[in-house]
Amino acid sequence: MVSQAVTAPLTRAATFLIVSAVSHPTAIPTIRATLSSVSDITKNISIRHPDGRLSCTVGIGSSIWSRLTSLPQPKELHPFQEIRGAKHTAVSTSGDILFHIRADRRDLCFEFERQLMQRLGNAVTVDDETVGFRYFDARDLLGFVDGTANPVDNEATEAAIVTQEDEPSSAGGSYVVVQKYLHDMKGWQALQTETQEAIIGRTKLDNVELDDAPPESQQSHKSLATIEMQGSEHAIVRDNMPFGSPGRSEFGTYFIGYARNLWVMEKMLERMFVGEPPGMHDRILDYSKAVLGATFFAPSDLESL
Ligand code: HEM
């Protein structure tokens, strides 16, 4: 069984495209045919620039799962559940299918999306399209290196891919959560660097991990996003990308996480938005507003849906 390119290494460019099927009898067959041609489109473009590391991962939402596939629905798959903290909300937004297009060159992502949209034609409407880019040494727009604690190689597979033992009918697939955040750059830049570092849990310039704060006190982002159960840590694979437009004063982070168990990402979000202890939410949220939230499952085989 071959999984999609879920654990592909960080690239220089990415496009995050979320679409929904229109209600027309030809829509579902068109989408199904397009999904089965994703690997052909990738090959046709990659051959022109083999070193561009082009890949596309497709996530299917619970809203369309049973109409689009004959596979049993993955047991944890459900729509993104809004999380309301005392101060901040993780919103839930619409979308049937996610395309996570990655490459080291923007033109490859563009060309892939162009050919994809041509095949999808009138079968879909676009819910969101976000173009991300690598910012210097993989920094987010808050100025911190993002992605350091990601598991690699076998550990990435272990964190992100559902196994036969977990769920035979979904084995080789991966749960995907996406969120789009818009940053209050003025507010963030007004903070002392030491305060920013305490919020993130790492030093800014050289990316060194800080110790966890004592229990019952304000935790950093990295501590709140660390899930430990019965002595073992549950990791996820992230591939966040900055996006934005200085001319429109838009500065954002597109969060994407892949996990073998959806509950792990939901627990992270609960700890961030509600806080641990409750009330002490992730201070990153005081400067980052969630404007999109959606959950999908990336099945192993797109050709026999
Ligand atoms: C760690 C940024 C949202 C999960 C980090 C780090 C940064 C960062 C700079 C430290 C370096 C690293 O290990 O990558 C951001 C930004 C976000 C965001 C700017 C959005 C505004 C999220 C969300 C989740 C998440 C929504 C999960 C649902 C994690 C995890 C770690 C991490 C698991 C690693 C913790 C560890 O050290 O083990 N993030 N993040 N992040 N983040 Fe986020």
TrEMBL record:
Alphabetical keyword list: Iron, Metal-binding, Oxidoreductase, Peroxidase
Look up the record and name the cofactor or cofactors this protein needs.
Answer: heme b
Sequence ranges assigned to domain Dyp-type peroxidase C-terminal in this UniProt record: 137-300
Organism superkingdom: Eukaryota
Instruction: Output the PROSITE patterns linked to this UniProt entry.
Output: DYP_PEROXIDASE
Q: Where is the Dyp-type peroxidase N-terminal domain?
A: 4-134
**Keyword presence, ATP-binding:** no
Pfam families in alphabetical order: Dyp_perox_C, Dyp_perox_N
The family classification in the record reads: Belongs to the DyP-type peroxidase family.
Protein's recorded name: Dyp-type peroxidase
Which organism is this entry from?
Bionectria ochroleuca (Gliocladium roseum)
